[in-house]
Amino acid sequence: xxxxxxxxxxxxxxxxxxxxxxxxxxxxxxxxxxxxxxxxxxxxxxxxxxxxxxxxxxxxxxxxxxxxxxxxxxxxxxxxxxxxxxxxxxxxxxxxxxxxxxxxxxxxxxxxxxxxxxxxxxxxxxxxxxxxxxxxxxxxxxxxxxxxxxxxxxxxxxxxxxxxxxxxxxxxxxxxxxxxxxxxxxxxxxxxxxxxx
Length: 197
Prior knowledge:
Elements: H1 3-26, H2 35-101, H3 105-114, H4 116-134, H5 136-142, H6 144-171, H7 182-196
């Protein structure tokens, strides 16, 4: 017998004993003429308890609804952030390529300084990939959507890396932070986790 079922049976026993005591207290032979009053009191108590339970249930449902709405909003915002980050990286890479073609190193340094925060975001994501790789076996079960989203981002970045490799062969320019090699980073993290177990 599991602990939970044992606790439930114990609670049920206590409830029965309490009900038996209340019934025996209220239904003494001298109180039988007041049975209608006692019955209406119990019905009122039952109605009040049911109303409290319904209010608690509706409150929980409202709280769940609000929580789900916040979760949907956060998911939409994270999707928007990811898209904007990719747009920013694309703009940065194209600008750096144009500045490189004009051989203006001073402007290239200015662009690097301007987009430094974007690199900080990439570093944060790189760290998340390492953490994900180290906990992949449990993350697949507990945070499967997160894992799928990360793999999608990694796949997109791998394709962008491949495009820049091709362009680099033609023009000799590779933007800062490219190739990201996040797929290799994830696989290395998984390999190290397995090796250390």
